[in-house]
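dumping these here so i dont lose them again. two proteins, back to back, each one seq then structure tokens. dont judge the mess
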Amino acid sequence: MSAFAPPKSKKARGTGASSNGNQKDYFKGIGNIQYKPGAGADEVMVFKHYNATEVINGRTMAEWLRFSVCFWHTFRGVGADPFGFPTIKRPWDDGSDSMENAKRRLRAAFEFFSKLGIKYWTFHDRDVAPEGETLEETNRNLDEITDLALELMEQTGVKLLWNTCNLFANPRYMNGAMTNPDAHVVAYAAAQIKKGLEIGKKMNAENFVFWGGREGYFTILNTDIRSELQNMANILKMVVEYKEKIGFKGQLLIEPKPKEPARHQYDYDAMTVIAFLRTYGLQEHFKINVEPNHTTLAGHPYEHDVVMASVCDMLGSIDSNTGSPDLGWDTDQFPMDVKNCTMVMKTVLEQGGLATGGLNFDAKVRRESTHLNDMFIAHIGAMDSFARGLRSAVKIKEEGVLANMVQQRYASFESGLGAKIAKGVSSLEECEDYVKQNGEPELVSGHQEKYESVLNHYV
């Protein structure tokens, strides 16, 4: 969730897009994406597996998957990287930070959502509206842009999965936002969050996300960690209080990431976030928004944080992307690995769905993928991958082979001393007596290769 940084200039740098605010058909020649299950290998502008209205395991695919497009990568990404200038130029975007340009981007986005058939979107406050010279001007810009967004949502039926605040791009946040050592900066972050919650309520957002890209440290030498964690917790308590005060019904979410841009981020992974929430008494108000690319950056398997958050009843939503395991940074690629998608959807099925959450494509086309079609192909491919993952997960659940194998592996906890341990009613003395009576336990194979082979049967 970290690629977008607002340009410094508010003046247009070119005239590459029409100034007609009501211009339509930004994607000329591209119609609504259709479901065509028999399509050939080179037919990439159709869904081959995702059939939105198909009922599977009691719900439609659309209800299980709840796909969402992120605004920042898809409509603010320009293909720049630390070693090269922007490569992506969109016909509706003149490169300026003007309100006219912001409105064109928004209209183009909703045309894209509609043609793709996705019913949710997500954004940062600074993605959609330019930052002004003062907080008041910034808030007026955001009000004006979100008024237009509401009109477009009404016209298209697209809903807001979640909104969030960009608390990392502006230089004021170079030392953190909620964890900044300067109280003035912390107050500014709080004021920005206040407006973000008001926008979430205004737009009926189903969730509100916190991603702490600058909430961490580069060196412990200049950092009072206890103070920073306490201040962050205090701001989040203010969030809970204000959310209830204004009647915002969305679920609050925190998105873990171990590093980048900070050397170490306090929201390192799902279990770290859960420990933080429980330490400061916030666990009843927040859930986790897992981004699997962040999970692998933390040194875990792709599905790890999804599973861990779910086991702790804290999985709220998923930023569906992937990274290159051989690289040490957040590449935000589209998820095309069906096995990974199957493991995620297996967990989603087991917990009965994502409730108000969804699968948000926090992903960007590659720097070299500059054609407008690439925007569609990337999302279509990822949606098909998750549709295949859903189908595989449903088969795994229905046939029960894996579940039975796992149940048998833990069968010793269903009776006798094992059952007492599982219920928390045994003691160390009883365990010692059991071992004295029964001697050394037998070695029992974990059959890892067998489990992996069984999974391959379904994928």
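---- next one ----
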Amino acid sequence: WWMPTRENRNHLTSASSPTSEMSFGAVAIAFIRHTQDDRRRGRHSFPLLDCCFLFRQMGVWIVLGLLACASVFSPALCSKGTDELARGFWIADDKFWKDGKPFQIMGGDIHYFRVHPQYWEDRLLRAKALGLNAIQTYVAWNVHQPRQMEIHFDGFADLEAYLNLAHKLDLLVLLRIGPYICAEWDLGGFPSWLLAQPQLQLRSSDPLFLNLVDAWWSVLLPKVSSLLYNNGGPIIMVQIENEYGSYGNDKKYLGHLVRQARAYLGESVILYTTDGGDRESLERGTIPDDDVYSAVDFPTDSDPVPIFELQKEFNAPGKSPPLTAEFYTGWLTHWRETFAKTNSGQTAKALEKILSLNGSVVLYMAHGGTNFGFFNGANTGADSSDYEPDITSYDYDAPIGEAGDVDHDKFKDLREVFEKFSIASLPDPPLLPLRRAYGDITLRKLASFFDVLNVISEPGNGELVEEPATMESLNQAKPHPCP
């Protein structure tokens, strides 16, 4: 039973509406709002004593009897109120809840910075035709701030336009704000100018690094806040860092990110982490003390049942809806490798198993796109000296190909699975845009590097060093992220 406090009583009354003059409808609406807020916070409370106080003033004890029959007020009942009261996204009873009803996330990654803005809507419409109700995207810091004193939110970097477009198309959004994103993107999304400060410790509680993150988030997160689902936008969840358990164990760093995110986005936002589905990664990468939801990822051929059970150990009781935040539809490709391909039938079978367990899933990738410019990242193999650069294409053997192709088995097989679990019938994908073959291009040598050195450099303004210097230390970062 729940004891009343001044804060809770003020939630149900107001100075402009004395208790003795409150109508039954006003009390009922206040009660629903109060109880729904409790549900969002994971509390199953019943403000009996406050209701007694109010109803005694009104002399309507019969209402108290009716409310007492529902000691835990159902989110579904709350959804029968006004639109304002019904709208919300939260976690309770090991389920996601959207507008008072259980919700199964069927999402996929489509990164705005890997798709030409002209094709954003086309690719999102193909995602809907695949059967997705949500998209997930990283925020690439280096796309928005290529130089320390430059910040861009236009063109390829127009994050707000991309999120608003998803909203217009009735797609929810899981937003991965970093600051580190991995994603096979150059330096994991970190701006290259960070490397000009060799003493700086990336992905750590180093104050110098945190100050730079705070400065970036002070620009980014106010833009995100207005687009949260509970504020009328499409964003239902916000990811902190990325698979940090595979890298480090600095809980002070993770805690700082959580506090900063909540300072801008509010206490009700669902923050989450994503880590590999093994105990060591989850122990290092999760933040359970700060009420941050822990999602998992794992190889497609893994049995999801024991991994989802392990996931529960790293979430609060009742706060662990099963979610694989990266369900691999394909794989990345390095230079000198053949294009990675995975079996569409096996991928579809693994997807269906997760959904049949009432699990939620995010395809990685739904549409891979392209690593424009020099923004392709790299991986390490056996050790740090085993350098494996990723190719320009990020097709990923995804169901929606790099050029928007959907006329192949993987799209059809996954669409059939999603259709079984979709509430509404799926739309047809849009027609492919017109394509053109450019033919062969012949290159011919014009000059050697040393012939044009004085043209491409600035004679007299150079810097004399005893040892080769890095491009970052000489401020040679590309001035703008994308063509």
